[in-house]
Design a protein that fits this description.
It is built from seven helices and five strands. The chain is α/β, with parallel strands linked by helices.
Amino acid sequence: MKLILAGDGEHGKDEVAKRMTQRFGLKCTSSSAEANRRFIFGALQPIMSYKSEDECYSDRRNHRALWYELIRAYNTHDRARLGRDIFERSDVYVGIRDDEELRAIREAGLVDAVVWVDARERKEREAGSSISVGWKDADYVLNNNVPLDCIDREIDRLWHWLQDIARKVA
């Protein structure tokens, strides 16, 4: 099963992905990490004078709108391009931001379910300049408004929901 974890910045997508990897053995890939490795570092290094991919990646939160636009540009001729790259070697695409990319990935049949990681009761929403995907674009909303020690219960609920989908499809 191929999944997308979406959500506003700093709402817990990476933590959910890490726990899904530990608990269920899923291979998760961050869109930011993949984009940085493939093209963003190369594009930004001459401008920002980054010394390494790690330095560029660590600074991504300071340039969210720019990263969003660079990913959109990478996907210009094939809106599902980054998704194809990620799903070649991963079960879970972590951090999709663009609604056109999500639509293209769905139309290409690359993904089985989209999960929105929601922490809006305890975290601010992200600016529209760096994300056009929203919770209404998801098939499932994972509640990450709970204390960190309760998130595994929410992930278990998601896992049971995914298993139900897999049984219906099989």
